[in-house]
Amino acid sequence: MTNSQLADEADQVRQGQSKLSPEDYLIIPQVPRFPEFRPLSLEDQDIIRDFLWKYQPRTSELTFTNLFIWRSRYEWHWAVDKEWLILQSTKDAKNPFFLQPIGPGPRVEIVLKILRWLKEEKDIAEGRVERADKRLLAEITGASVFQVEPSREHFDYVYRSEDLISLRGMKYHAKRNYINRFESGTDYQLVHLSGENLEQCAEFEERWCGFRRCEEDLNLSGEWEAIRQALAHYQRLKVEGEAIMIDGRVEAFTFGELLNAETAVIHIEKANPEIPGLYPLINQKYCEKYWKKVSYINREQDLGEEGLRKAKLSYHPDHLEEKHKIRLIE
Asked: Residue 196 above 50 pLDDT?
């Protein structure tokens, strides 16, 4: 999808336009109806993406790309109930969970419905909704049957796009210095991710995993599988990406997409850790090329990893997008 197409989609949302109505989903034969779920696949992209785009999410999980590339980690299944999209993780059969129902509010009854279904039909006493946004929390406020707790490790870091592009001010002094040193001493190319260099990105990720010992870290091994899925299906996913080439080979790459009409989300950013300045360079160049017209950039969560948290805080987020866990207490 081109940058102009992304801008057109944003304009359509601002004008209140949408492809399908809730009634349309009821007559599409391939749409699974709750409680009958179906594994998420690439062929589901248009339907699921339409649900998500109409919701205008602010949390990073809620793009089709994110759900698809992480599907082996979570084993996402989906169904539709009336005007809501229901997403369930079934990776742990004894401990499944839902993401928040996607659709119009109020959603108290649909949240009750899916959690009671887990409890009564699946005998899952500790059923839960994970990574619920503040919008859903506002809708269930006052419903005494729910217990809510924050999930700090999943809070998204959201930045002003202008800050990541300009790196203006003393707080970004070190980032600018890294970039200036790199650019003054290194010949490089910034290239669009395409069929010509995707295989090189995969080869680079193998090298990166060698640096970071991915096989010893569950989060990194899961991320490597997600990256493999993204690169293998890149041409069909609706994302934009760039790579940095040095001496004819990929040394960094990144990709992302619009999360909502005002926010982009960066799904993956990888750079050779042995080359100082590459990480701040690809972040700044990528945001400048693709995301000048949006107000914010969501760089996803830190998963509770101290080093990753420090790195994300070093870019001085405008705010953290909070997420919460919801359980039944009836």
From this structure: yes
